[in-house]
Each structure stands twice: as C-alpha cells, then as structure tokens.
C-alpha cells in the first residue's frame, strides 16, 4: 500500500459516548509512551525510513536509552521490542479487505471471538478477539504506531472511524461480509486446534457457533456512532509494527465471550488523537519534501 501520510483534511470525528469507551482515561500513560518513543535516538530516522518504504535502511535493534519495561538499572545497550522495521504483515497489505478509501482499509481480525476456543483465560485465551466484532483499520501509508503520530497523521483515527461508520450504517453487504469473516475465524481456529491434536476442537467450535448465533441479532442492531469503540496498542505493547486501529463492538454483551487480556494496554484511539493534536509539535523532518509543500 502506498498513499499520502497527510490526514489533516479528514474532519474530526466525534468519539462514541462514554459507555462505549472502556479504554479511556489513560492520558498519562499515552503521554509517557509517546514521550518514551521520541526519546529514543533512532525514532525519527527509523519512522521516516518506514514511511518512505526504505528497506535498505539500517533500523535500530538496540539502544543506549532503556525502553519502557526495561529492568531498572540494567546495563545497555537495551533491546527494542517491537521496534520499527522494514516490513510487517500489514505493510503492503494484500489480504482480503472489507472496506477502503484512498488512505485507509478495514480488514478483519483473524482470531475467533470466543476465548474458550483457545483454552479460556487460563489457557491462552489472550489469542482470541477482544469482541464478537473485532476489525482493524490500517493506513495505506507506512505509519509505525500511535506513538509516532504527529498532528499531520493523527487524524488517521478519524479516517478509520469515518469509513467504518459509513459502511456499517449504509451497507448491508459490508455487515454481511463482517459477519461472515467473524464466523470464518471460528472455523479457522477449529482447524488450527485440530491440527494441534486438541481433542475438544470440534466441541469448542460448535459451542462458539451457538454463541455466535445467539449474539447475531444484537450485533446486527448495533449503532455505528454509539456502540463501537476504537483502540490502539502503543509501543512497546503492540503486536504488529504498522499502525492498526482496533474497531470493537463495545458493549458487555458483545464482549462476554472474548479476551480481556489486552484491556489494560489498550488506549482509546480518540484520546490518543486528542493528545497528539493538543500537545505534540509537528515533525516535518519525517515527511518527504514533496509532501510538505
């Protein structure tokens, strides 16, 4: 994927109501993680190289500056978990796309919504989805992570929200594609578990399908503006080093069978956006000269 990194033309989207923002209230953590990223000597150079798609760039792997979570007093150089790299599974994404515009795409999360298919909370359930409806919004431009956002790029959150809300509200075909993807994830997990010789793979998948059928009428009735939340996993708490906005059905009913393992680290995407727009200075050195004109 290759597209402009300038998102400033997207109108500011209204956040969902407080009841649908379970990850809000973490401004201090957002500020600390953003500041820690830019304190790394390689941050600007590596983020710029990734944005340009520079596979020949020597991306940092270790740093004299300890990242968040490093053992207190540990001698450097320190490993940089989840740091910027030349390629990720979301870079140049070529998989099935549920919706797109000029600058963002919406894709499905590959995991089943049902944590029981992974053994439940005590047995690897963290690999499950975070909600019965769990999608991902990806920028086509190579944006690294929420911590690397600047005022020029912060409205990627608005771009994702606007595209998702419009499709959910207006397109029955989009909804059907989302539902089909979520159910296919149950089937995929059944095949994975069977291949790993788990004797209960079919039983757990059948249970998940029953739960899905029971949830479906309520899921189909969800309101685009009020019933979905948008989350970000900030460095170093993320899984893929290409920015992706988690789009989740937010209510307790929709999340009752899904993992909560990631709730602590998930930040409200609108809270991240507002922090960047209100407190972060622009970094023109990140962008191509042609894009600055």
Structure description:
43% of the residues are buried. The protein is 34% helix and 11% strand. It is built from eight helices and eight strands. The mean pLDDT is 94. It has one domain (18-24, 87-292): 2-Layer Sandwich (HIT family, subunit A), CATH 3.30.428. By secondary structure, it is of the alpha+beta class. It has a six-stranded antiparallel beta sheet. A two-stranded antiparallel sheet has the order 1-2.
> Widest sheet: strand order?
3-4-5-7-6-8
CATH architecture descriptor: 2-Layer Sandwich
CATH homologous superfamily (4th level) name: HIT-like
Give the SSE string. HHEEEEEHHHEEHEHH
Q: Report the oligomer.
A: single chain
- What is the count of helical runs? 8
- Mean of all residue-level pLDDT scores: 94
Which secondary structure elements does this structure contain, and how are they paired or packed?
Layout: H1 27-38, H2 43-52, E1 62-63, E2 78-79, E3 99-100, E4 104-108, E5 134-139, H3 156-170, H4 172-195, H5 201-220, E6 228-233, E7 245-249, H6 252-255, E8 266-268, H7 269-279, H8 289-292
Helix pairs in contact: 4-5
């Amino acid at each position: 994927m290759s597209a402009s990194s300038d998102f400033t033309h997207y109108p500011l989207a209204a956040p969902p109501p407080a009841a649908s923002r379970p990850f809000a209230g973490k401004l201090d953590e957002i500020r600390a993680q953003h500041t820690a990223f830019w304190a790394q000597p390689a941050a600007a150079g590596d983020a710029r190289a990734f944005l340009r798609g520079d596979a020949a760039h020597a991306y940092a792997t270790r740093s004299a500056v300890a990242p968040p979570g490093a053992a207190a007093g540990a001698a450097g150089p320190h490993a940089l978990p989840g740091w910027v790299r030349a390629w990720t599974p979301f870079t140049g994404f070529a998989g099935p796309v549920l919706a797109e515009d000029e600058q963002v795409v919406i894709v499905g999360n590959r995991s089943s919504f049902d944590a029981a298919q992974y053994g439940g909370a005590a047995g690897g359930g963290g690999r499950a989805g975070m909600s019965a409806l769990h999608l991902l919004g990806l920028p086509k431009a190579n944006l690294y992570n929420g911590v690397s956002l600047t005022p020029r790029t912060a409205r990627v959150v608005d771009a994702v929200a606007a595209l998702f809300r419009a499709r959910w509200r207006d397109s029955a075909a989009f909804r059907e594609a989302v539902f089909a993807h979520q159910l296919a994830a149950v089937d995929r997990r059944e095949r994975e578990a069977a291949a790993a010789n788990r004797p209960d793979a079919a039983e757990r998948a059948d249970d998940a399908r029953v739960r899905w059928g029971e949830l479906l009428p309520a899921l189909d009735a969800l309101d685009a503006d009020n019933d979905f939340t948008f989350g970000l996993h900030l460095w170093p708490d993320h899984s893929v080093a290409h920015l992706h906005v988690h789009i989740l059905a937010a209510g307790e009913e929709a999340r009752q069978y899904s993992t909560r393992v990631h709730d602590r680290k998930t930040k409200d995407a609108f809270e991240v956006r507002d922090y960047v727009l209100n407190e972060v200075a622009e970094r023109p050195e990140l962008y191509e000269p042609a894009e600055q004109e």
